[in-house]
Amino acid sequence: MTQVVLAGRPHPLGARWDGSGVNFALFSANATRVELCLFDANGRREVERVDLPEQTHEVWHGYLPHVRPGQLYGYRVHGPYAPEEGHRFNPNKLLIDPYAKALHGELRWHDACFGYRVDSPRDDLSFDRRDSAFVVPKCVVVDPAYTWGEDIRPRRAWAETIIYEAHVKGISARHPEVPPAMRGTFAGLADPHIVEHLERLGVTAIELMPVHAFINDRALVKKGLSNYWGYNTLCFHAPATRYISPGHGIDEFKFMVKRLHEAGIEVILDVVYNHTAEGNQLGPTMSFRGIDNANYYLLASDRRFYFDTTGTGNTMNLRHPRVMQLVTDSLRFWVEECHVDGFRFDLATALGREYDKFEPHSVFFDTLSQDPVLQGVKLIAEPWDIGPNGYQLGNFPPGWAEWNGAYRDNVRSFWRGDRDALAGLAHGLLGSADRFEHRGRRTWASVNFVTAHDGFTLADLWSYNRKHNEANREDNRDGYDDNRSWNCGVEGPSDDPAIVVLRGRLRRATAATLFLSDGIPMWLAGDELARTQGGNNNAYCQDNESNWIDWSPPGRDEDLVTFVAGLTAIRHSRLLLRAAKFRHGEVIGDSGVRDVMWLRADAGEMTPEEWHNGGGAVALMLNGRGRKSLLVVLNREPGATKLTLPPRAGPVAWRVLVDSGTAAIEPDLPATASGETLTVGERSVMLLETAEALA
Questions:
Q1: What fold is seen in the domain 14-140?
Q2: Per the residue annotation, which of 266, 382, 518, 659 is the catalytic one?
Q3: Given Cys at both, which of 49, 266, 683, 686 links 633, Cβ 3.0 to 4.6 Å?
Q4: Which residues in the chain show pLDDT less than 70?
């Protein structure tokens, strides 16, 4: 049937079903013609092409009254092919709508994906006339209606937040209680067995690694690998089809969000707006490059090339209002239509750049700060990229939290035994005021973590001195070398009882340090089960059992699960462990008592010199109003030590809440009076609380 095409409207962008027909709108300032291509239900046959008849304010648009939800489509965009001028139009390439809400099929790599001839010669100045429609995913017109019922956003305060970083597939792919058809999908993550585990752990938010539609890099496919992590985005509005059960669509994602909300758990998405999957000038033409390359990407002074601060070949041009609109429209879509609670921005420094300069008052940050939808959700920055002065920890604007890589390094160094790590650890335990205390920012600006998807797992941190990335097939050159890890005497697995015990102590001590620090703790999924990647610290391309959580009894550390759950429960129940404001040893009211004190094992206050000798146990006393105090004791020495319990406003006693050495949470032990001594085990953390005075 020949389609009737009406003028339609230039807004909103994308394909919008209004109950009667579909309006199509696509931004391209430099195109000369835009063709809408309609496909059959399988996406294999192009059944019709129609020209979008109107262009208004650089937006091409048309209305098709006979198109319905489920229709597959794509674009062919005409214009100059002049790479030296920044233009790479090629109507032989089927292009994905940047506003597509769903995709059909996965990319199949073929030389036809490229706008230039890759075979004769390998030069992007040539022009390729092969049609790419047979290998490119198709866009899907969707009906946005969804019955949310009584879905209530948890709206957790920042100070109450505990984040669990997880991969959609990795969390359920090996779970024996999740139905096989649902494993590795949004529905699998929403399975009651997964949700119950999250509830048991006491986490308040799950931070999902990228769920936007992404592709497997061609180089990885040639090696028999895939892009497991997903930092290779193809479309910012569509969920990855690989995480959707057969026969389902984005409603499955919404169902997952609803189930997590019912458990009081927020959903935070790890989003990649700094670059796209199209790569550099030798990359494929699948969407933005063929729609309007000169506007969607930052180009170098030689406009044939790209200005790249991401290490992926390109950088999105957020200085252009339409590109900024694309990003903010995407964010609002996930918040308003999918009820997402926040975002973690990959390589966020790149989003705030004015080419080679990072600017906290960039258009991107200012736009989000005043947006009535986005200013009410959690915003987290990965505060670095690979460009000039790319490490910007602490320099993001108020309202943002930041992944604190310095905290990670200091905690690892301390428990590894580095003599110079104590001062850095002390800053981290109190929220890293040296980084974040300015412009009214609070302790929650620091997202504290010791492990994340990028790097060693917690089990591997204390099992390997070196990375073992041979499975990535890059001759072990990928991944970083500064792991600040310790193998406890044997590289890799060991059945030596002493080493097994030592590694367990270090895992628990590291966990206790994280959950007893000011700031927002972030826990890597599976660390509570002692998940290992075999020493691979860059497992981005391993879509297999080395990356999937092992839920079976032989592969899990049940004692560590119980211990972590106990730590989060202690944190939730003690306000002194969730201070919103930075503490600097200031006197509380007229009590004469300071809010924090750093003590030696003999209960004397630390001197400036002792911060640098790095020996012995140290204790952090957190004081509140009245007689309530907490004492965090850290002993990284290879032997036990005696701790003298400090006085606190008259005769008080102290009772143990946490002992990482024995994995004890609130053990049934008698309280100990101030001035008495207590034994702190080797390489362990203890938390004590003031109790009633002894008779």
A1: Immunoglobulin-like (2.60.40)
A2: 382
A3: 686
A4: 1, 121-122, 554-556, 614, 649, 692-695
